[in-house]
Design brief:
Shape: globular
Strand order of the largest sheet: 3-2-1-4-6-5
Strand content: 5-15%
Cofactor: [4Fe-4S] cluster
Largest sheet: 6 strands, mixed
Enzyme class: oxidoreductase
Radius of gyration: 18 Å
Subcellular location: Cytoplasm
Keywords: Cytoplasm, Iron, Iron-sulfur, Metal-binding, Oxidoreductase
Protein name: Adenosine 5'-phosphosulfate reductase
Order of helices and strands: HHHEHEHEHHHEEEH
Length: 247
């Protein structure tokens, strides 16, 4: 057993009930480096043991790798899915399949504005006229509102996905949300993800095999040519690279 793995397991007695944001941030400053080289399962184990039901994972349903890993460590864990109202039917189908086949508590959250109400208030097709505002209304705010119930959240961010994410720590402090942010897959390569999917029969959004390696809302996602940056199909033709959740 590596020193980092043992260190992660030693943290299991930590509790955060009643901790302030300052105390949570201090916790992260000591733990992040210790868990940097730990296996993804150990990182999730630490988070579950530390935060209990104040910890959730998020999934955009490109695949179910993180949900599968977390369900093995903590059956019944909350999995938060943002329904923007603009998802591909394949993405909704993947969400439904995850809920039906994995021992998780899938929570679908959305903005209070329907697409029709948003069109009426901000003008038709806001994703074209102001994509940042559209993402803020349909992704960033609903997630922030939901995360108010938690002290920590896990994402499927990987450093291999884009240069913008190269510094993502496995455990860090999300100052904007005032939450501990956990990225158990941060160090995983594309090959590791594929091997885990094959070895464990993990659900994958069928669009992944149809030229969509990175899947967002249908109006803002395009197919990617073989060999191109996997995220080049997101907001193609604009300078936008992130929805704002990970800003």
């Amino acid at each position: 057993m590596s020193a980092s793995t043992q260190a992660a397991r030693d943290f299991k007695g930590t509790h955060t009930a009643g901790r302030t944001p300052e105390e949570l941030r201090e916790l992260v400053s000591h733990v992040g480096a210790e868990l940097e080289l730990a296996p993804a399962e150990v990182i999730i184990e630490w988070a579950v043991a530390t935060f209990g039901d104040r910890f959730a994972i998020t999934s955009s349903m490109g695949d179910a790798v993180l949900a599968h890993l977390a369900s093995k460590v903590a059956p019944g864990i909350d999995v938060v899915f943002l329904d923007t109202g603009y998802h591909f039917v394949e993405t909704i189908g993947t969400r439904d399949a995850v809920e039906a086949t994995l021992p998780v508590n899938l929570r679908t959250v959305s903005t209070s504005l329907t697409v029709a109400e948003q069109d009426a208030q901000y003008g038709k097709d806001l994703y074209k006229t102001d994509p940042d505002l559209c993402c803020a209304l349909r992704k960033v705010k609903p997630l922030a509102d939901t995360l108010a119930e938690y002290d920590a959240w896990a994402t499927g961010l990987r450093r291999a996905e884009t240069h913008n994410r190269v510094i993502a720590p496995v455990v860090g402090w999300d100052a904007r949300k005032g939450k501990v942010k956990v990225s158990p897959l941060a160090r995983w390569t594309d090959e590791q993800v594929e091997a885990y999917i094959v070895d464990n029969g993990v659900l994958v959004n069928p669009l992944v095999h149809d030229g969509y390696p990175s899947i967002g809302c249908w109006p803002c996602t395009r197919r990617v040519a073989p060999g191109d940056d996997p995220r080049s199909g997101r907001w193609a033709g604009t300078s936008k690279t992130e929805c704002g959740i990970h800003a």
